[in-house]
Specification:
The structure holds 2 protein chains of 2 kinds.
Chain A: E1 36-39, E2 53-59, E3 85-92, H1 96-106, E4 117-124, E5 127-134, H2 137-161, H3 165-169
Antiparallel strand pairs in A: 1-2, 2-3, 3-5, 4-5
Helix pairs in contact in A: 1-2
Chain B: E1 3-8, E2 13-20, E3 23-26, E4 29-31, H1 42-64, E5 73-79, H2 83-100, E6 104-108, H3 109-121, E7 127-131, E8 136-142, E9 145-151, H4 157-167, H5 176-185, E10 197-198, E11 201-202, H6 205-230, E12 234-238, H7 245-258, E13 261-264, H8 267-270, H9 274-286
Parallel strand pairs in B: 1-5, 5-6, 7-12, 12-13
Antiparallel strand pairs in B: 1-2, 2-3, 2-4, 7-8, 8-9, 10-11
Helix pairs in contact in B: 1-2, 3-9, 4-5, 5-6, 6-7
Classes of the chains: A alpha+beta, B alpha/beta.
C-alpha cells in the first residue's frame, strides 16, 4: 500500500540537479597515486553477484578550469585561479536499477559539507559514478572513507533483502 | 491498519521497531558501550550501527511476525543527533524503502520520544520533560507545534551525568547514568562540597547524590513553571534520563503538590528505541506526511518545534 506520490522511487525526486554528467576522468598517467583497485567482499550467489570493483583515478589538478558540471561539455565557466583536486570512483552494479537505487540512497546526505568539498553522482548504465572535487586532497580522502563505508552498507542491504521479482525483471 | 517500521540510531543506541495501530509489535535494540573513562565518538558509533542494523531489521520482522508485504511505511530518525550515526541509519531506511517500494518518513527524534510516551502512558495533553544525553527540554503542545518552554543553555543533563561518570571512570555498561543512579541510592548524606575521603579509601556516593539532587531539582523547577504557565495538570517524562527513579520521585512530589498527574515510561521506551520512531511515523503517516527521497537528508540540529504536528488537534 502506498499513498500517491509517496513512493520512495516516486517522480517527485528533485535530485537530478545533483546527477550531473561526470566527464570521463583522465587517468593519472605517471601520477604518484596511480590506480587503486579495491574489491568489495563477495556476496551470495558467487563472485559475480553484486561485486563492486572500485577504481580510483586521480584527475589532474584543474587549475583555472572549473570542474565539469551540469550542462554539456564546453559550458564551463572559469573559476578564480586555484588548484582543484578531483577523484572519481566507479562502482559497477549488476543492473542499472541497483546502481540508481544506490545513488538515491547515498545522494541526500552528500551535500552536508558542501563548503569544503563537492560530491557529484551519476549513473551510467549499471555503473555508479561519484566525483569529488575540493581544494585539498585531504578533504577528498576524509570524505571518501565514510562514503565507502556507507556504500558497503547499501550493497549489503541490497544483497540481504534482494530485489523483488517484479523489480528484478525491470 | 497500517504497520510502520522505524529506524533509530542518532546516538549510541540503534533500534528497529514495528508499530501497528498503537501496538508495539517489535522493538529490538543494541547499545554501543565504550570502556570506562571514554565516551562514544561519531565514527566508531556509526561503525557499530552499520555492523548490526541489518540483523536488527530481520530480528524486528521476525519478532513482529511480519514480512515486507505487511509494512506500509518506513520511518527513520532525520535528526537531531550525531551526523555519522544518523547517516548510517538513513541510508538503510532509504534503501529498504526503495527495495520494498514503500513511502519514507523522516521523524524528529524528540517527537518520537513524545509520541511513544503518549502512547504508552495514555497521557492526553501533558507538559513534557524531555531529558536525555543529547537533549534537555520542557515542552508543551500548542496549535500544532510542540513548543519549547525551557531548555539547557549548554549541555544536556544526561551529558552532564555522562561526563561526570567519565571523570570517575564509572562503567558505561549498561549506561553511565544507570550506574550513577545505583551508586547514588546508597548515599545517605547530602554534602555541600563534593569531596569525601576516608583514609586511603574514598566514598563516591555522597558526590553522586549531590549531583543528582541539584540537577534534578533544576529540572523540576522549570517543568513546574511551564505547567503553571500552561495550566497543565499532567506531566510526562521522556528520554533516557527519564528512567531515573529519583527524578521521577522528585517530579511526583512536585505534581502532587500541584494536584497534577505524573506519567513516565520504563527503560524499554524511555531509552532511544526504534518503536518510538515507528510510532511517530505511524501518526505522521496517518496524517498524510511523506518524505521524498530528495528531502530525506539527515539534520543534526532538528528542533522539536520545527515540525508541524498535524495529527493533533
Amino acid at each position: 500500500m502506498q499513498a500517491s506520490g509517496g513512493g520512495a522511487g516516486g517522480a517527485e525526486d528533485r535530485d537530478d540537479q545533483q546527477s550531473s554528467r561526470i566527464p570521463a576522468c583522465q587517468s593519472g598517467s605517471g601520477s604518484a597515486e596511480g590506480e587503486a583497485v579495491r574489491r568489495a567482499p563477495q556476496g551470495r550467489g558467487g563472485p559475480g553477484r553484486g561485486r563492486a570493483v572500485m577504481e580510483a583515478a586521480v584527475a589532474r589538478p584543474q587549475g583555472e578550469q572549473a570542474p565539469g558540471g551540469v550542462g554539456s561539455a564546453g559550458d564551463v565557466a572559469p573559476l578564480a585561479v586555484r588548484p582543484r583536486r578531483g577523484e572519481v570512483v566507479l562502482v559497477p552494479f549488476q543492473s542499472p536499477l541497483e546502481a540508481d537505487m544506490a545513488r538515491r540512497s547515498l545522494l541526500p546526505d552528500a551535500q552536508r559539507h558542501q563548503g569544503l568539498i563537492r560530491k557529484e553522482f551519476a549513473v551510467n548504465g549499471s555503473d555508479l559514478l561519484v566525483r569529488w572535487t575540493a581544494d585539498d586532497l585531504a578533504f577528498i580522502r576524509l570524505s571518501m572513507n565514510p562514503f565507502l563505508d556507507q556504500l558497503s552498507l547499501v550493497i549489503r542491504n541490497i544483497w540481504s533483502l534482494g530485489l523483488p521479482p517484479r523489480q528484478s525483471r525491470s | 491498519m497500517p504497520a510502520v517500521l522505524g529506524f533509530e540510531g542518532s546516538a549510541n543506541k540503534i533500534g528497529v521497531g514495528v508499530v501497528r495501530d498503537g501496538k508495539v509489535l517489535a522493538n529490538p535494540r543494541r547499545t554501543y558501550v565504550t570502556p570506562p573513562g571514554t565516551g562514544f565518538l561519531p565514527g566508531d558509533t556509526a561503525r557499530h550501527h552499520r555492523a548490526v542494523i541489518l540483523d536488527l531489521l530481520q530480528e524486528a520482522l521476525t519478532e513482529a511476525g511480519l514480512t515486507s508485504e505487511d509494512i506500509d511505511c518506513i520511518a527513520y530518525t532525520k535528526g537531531p543527533g550525531m551526523g555519522a550515526p544518523l547517516v548510517s541509519v538513513a541510508v538503510v531506511a532509504r534503501t529498504v524503502a526503495q527495495l520494498w517500494n514503500k513511502p519514507l518518513l523522516g521523524v524528529n527524534h524528540c517527537i518520537g520520544h513524545i509520541e511513544m510516551g503518549r502512547l504508552i502512558t495514555g497521557a492526553t495533553n501533558p507538559t513534557v520533560l524531555y531529558v536525555s544525553g543529547g537533549n534537555t527540554q520542557v515542552i508543551a503542545y500548542s496549535e500544532h507545534r510542540y513548543r519549547i518552554f525551557g531548555e539547557t543553555i549548554d549541555i544536556a543533563v544526561g551529558n552532564c551525568l555522562d561526563r561526570f561518570a567519565r571523570v570517575l571512570k564509572i562503567s558505561n555498561d549498561p549506561s553511565p547514568g544507570y550506574n550513577i543512579e545505583q551508586m547514588a541510592k546508597r548515599g545517605k548524606k547530602l554534602v555541600e562540597l563534593p569531596y569525601t575521603v576516608k583514609g586511603m579509601d574514598v566514598s563516591f556516593s555522597g558526590i553522586l547524590s549531590f549531583i543528582e539532587e541539584t540537577v534534578f531539582a533544576m529540572l523540576v523547577e522549570i517543568t513546574e513553571r511551564a505547567m503553571a504557565h500552561c495550566g497543565s495538570q499532567e506531566a510526562l517524562i521522556v528520554g533516557g534520563v527519564g528512567c531515573n527513579v529519583r527524578l521521577q520521585e522528585m517530579m511526583e512530589t512536585m505534581c502532587q503538590e500541584r494536584g497534577a498527574r505524573l506519567f513516565a515510561t520504563d527503560e524499554r521506551f524511555c531509552i532511544d528505541n526504534g518503536a518510538m520512531i515507528a510510532q511517530a511515523g505511524w501518526e505522521m503517516f496517518q496524517a498524510g506526511h511523506r518524505t521524498p527521497l530528495s528531502e530525506s537528508g539527515i539534520t543534526q540540529r532538528y528542533r522539536t518545534d520545527e515540525v508541524e504536528v498535524t495529527w493533533r488537534d
